[in-house]
């Protein structure tokens, strides 16, 4: 277990920052996707009436 923690701690700051930015971009895309899906279904329901 200790060896695994040491391997994870060896990564440099640039790699860690890249992982954080990538995760933030993925979360943002999920938010935008959910909003777009909601707006599209709202528009389609409104169009049926």
Question: Can you walk through the features of this model?
Answer:
This protein has 49 residues and is mainly α. It is 90% helix and 0% strand. It has two helices and no strands. It has helices spanning 2-9, 13-48. The longest helix has 36 residues, at 13-48. It starts with a helix and ends with a helix. The mean pLDDT is 86.
List key phrases describing it:
about 50 residues, mainly alpha, about 90% helix
Quick take:
Helices cover 90% and strands 0% of the residues. It has 49 residues and is mainly α.
Q: Considering DSSP H and I runs of 4 or more, what fraction of the residues is helical?
A: over 70%
Which series of helices and strands comes N to C? HH
Total DSSP helices = 2
Low-confidence stretches: none
Mean model confidence by pLDDT: 86
Question: Biggest sheet, in brief?
Answer: none
Helix/sheet category:
mainly alpha
Strand content: under 5%
Distance between the termini: 61 Å
Shape: rod-shaped
Total beta-strand segments: 0
Seen as an oligomer or otherwise, the chain set is single chain
User: How many whole angstroms does the radius of gyration measure?
Assistant: 20 Å
């Amino acid at each position: 277990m200790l060896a695994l923690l040491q391997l994870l701690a060896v990564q440099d700051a640039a790699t860690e920052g890249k992982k954080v930015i990538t995760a933030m971009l993925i979360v943002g895309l999920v938010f935008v996707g959910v909003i777009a899906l909601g707006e599209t279904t709202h528009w389609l329901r409104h169009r049926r009436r």
